[in-house]
Amino acid sequence: MFGEINAWYYKGPGGIFPDERAPGFKNVILRPVFPAGLENFRAEHEGPYGTIISGWKRSEGPVMYIVSIPTNSTATLLLKASKVMKDGKEITAGKPLKEREGKEQAFEIELKPGDHLFEIY
């Protein structure tokens, strides 16, 4: 009965979802949410291939977002931001989905197994 309450933590601010096209977390969908008033958050989900981590910390500048994808899995990161940087380099070829009103746009970024650090503006 309370299982979905616990799942809210990794699905809500953590944004960890299974991909319907690759069941069993073979490909992970990441749609993190950065609500105002919350300074940092970290979610973990134990999938069949290992631990999936989605965590972030808000600073004066960008949101620092860290992801860990287990071996034998991949991930699709979906972000709404005006600018996304990985390892100090701006992501421009990360499949910008569509321009929205204002400065924000949606990015779709394919991730391989391992640890990834993003700066989100």
For the sheet with most strands, the description reads:
6 strands, antiparallel
Please indicate the percent range of residues in DSSP E strands (runs of 2 or more): over 45%
> Strands across the major sheet, in which order?
3-4-5-11-7-8
Average pLDDT confidence is: 84
Question: Any idea what the radius of gyration is?
Answer: 14 Å
Describe the structure.
With 121 residues, the chain is mainly beta. The chain is built from one helix and eleven strands. The strands form two sheets. The protein has a six-stranded antiparallel β-sheet, with helices on one face. Strands 1-2-6-10-9 form a five-stranded mixed β-sheet, with no helix packed on it. A hairpin with a 5-residue loop joins strand 9 and strand 10. The longest helix has 9 residues, at 3-11. The protein is globular, with a radius of gyration of 14 Å. The N and C termini lie far apart (38 Å). The model is unreliable at 98-103 (pLDDT under 50).
